[in-house]
Amino acid sequence: MIDFELSETQKLIQQTARDFARSELLPGASERERKGEFPAELLQKMAGLGLMGVNVPERFGGTEAGVVAYVLAMMELGAACSSTTVTTGVTNMVAEIICKFGTEEQIRAHVPKLVSGEYLAGAFALTEPGCGSDAASLATTARRAPDGGWILDGTKQFITSGAVAGVHVAWARTGGPGAKGISAFLVPAATPGLIVGREERKMGQRASNTVSLTFDGMKLPPDALLGEENRGFRIAMVALDGGRLGVGAMAIGIGNAALQAAIDYAKERKTFGQRLADHQAIQWMLADSATELDAARLLILRAARLKELDRPFTREASMAKLFATEAANRVCSRAVQVHGGYGYVDEYPVERFYRDCRVTTIYEGASEIQRMVIARSLLEE
Ligand code: CAA
To answer: How far is CA 1 from CA 229, 305, 310, 312, 321, in A?
Structure first.
């Protein structure tokens, strides 16, 4: 059965996110991004609206509205301020994986704080200076302490919310080489030995926080292990399957905003005696952008629905993330083109959309990784 209607709950989450995005996120988005101002207060307000745990069970403080509702919210938020949206996406992802792989105590210790805003954010510390795409080659180590706890040494790179998160999920090598020797750990903020590096100066999404983290003989208790020893790589992969839907949805939001800006401008600006919108060259750009965004939306919704039904969705998530983020980049590029010289200066918003969108084909698994995941699944069949 194919039903394109949204449920009442999905509509409610979508509307809540849309209202908040328009009234609270959008007005200061450009200025925050320009200044690199972290949106702490806004994130707390969003937690109050249930947007930090959209797919988290109610008994842990979440909204329990499902994965489709989550991606709908990410599309709305992404259209206004992607710095805030990526922070929201990573926090939702961290809350979800703690729920999925944590013990009751671990969940109770962190998830209610993540979804209520008591923690400003959650962080996902997988990438290292020497490995991003090839995550299974990570070099951070975790060795057993005499008291049964753990001692971590190593450096993580490009960690979203690394300086502001209340809890980090961090991956480290506990066994041999490759994916089979990796474990996941819960690292609360301010753990002695956790050193936060300087903030990265990024091309876009500058109001999000991106830092390196160094673990210098960082001591963790025995119950910091998330899931089983040496089985942590799978946790990262499962989390990323879901995270990719969030990033793809956010990219659609950025693309939607860029397309709308291009439409508005094309109706107002005149060249050669008529509106830009009356030139076929411009019309085709708008038509291609709308078509690609719609296709992306359908791919994201299908993958989200599969996840919600607890069915395999890895390939579909990678297809959706690949297509949505690349389409959104094309849409933003066309929107700049429609604006001409005004698209290249910060007087109009498309310059920010273009910069903000660029990273979406890189983080949460680069396009090349999505193609690798898709091709492997085709060839394994
Ligand atoms: N679900 C469950 N298990 C999975 C899985 C999935 N989607 N993908 C792989 N696995 C399991 C495999 O079954 C295998 O398990 P066994 O050893 O038990 O057989 C194990 O994981 C290893 O799998 P692979 O052999 O496929 O591993 P690989 O080394 O070839 O790597 C990869 C696979 C897909 C390339 C992976 O390294 C990858 O996703 N890389 C990209 C990393 C990434 O996305 N980083 C993003 C960082 S977070 C971020 O960006 C957040 C932010 O700031 C916004």
So the answer is: 41, 13, 17, 18, 24
Residues 175 and 95 in one domain: no
Q: Which domain holds residue 92?
A: 8-120
* Per-residue confidence (pLDDT) for residue 172, from 0 to 100: 98
Pocket lined around ligand 1, Cβ cut-off 6 Å? 86, 90, 124, 126-127, 133-136, 160, 179-180, 233-234, 237-238, 240-241, 314, 363-365, 369, 372-373
274-318 residue pLDDT tens: 999 999 999 999 999 999 999 999 999 999 999 999 999 999 999
The answer on 366 and 298 residing in a single domain is yes
Here the CATH number for the domain that contains residue 103 is 1.10.540.10
What's the rounded Cα separation, in Å, for the pair 211 and 197? 6
Residue from 159, 202, 234, 311 to probe ligand 1 pocket by mutation (most atoms less than 8 Å from CB):
234
Total of domains in the chain: 3
Q: Which of 24, 364, 368, 381 is catalytic?
A: 364
Q: What is the pLDDT of residues 8-43, one digit of tens each?
A: 999 999 999 999 999 999 999 999 999 999 999 999
- 161, 196, 230: which is the final residue of a domain? 230
Chain center to CA of 31: 21
Q: Are residues 222 and 271 in the same domain?
A: no
How many whole angstroms separate alpha carbon 313 and alpha carbon 148? 37
Instruction: Give the atom of ligand 1 at the shortest distance from the alpha carbon of 362.
Output: 50
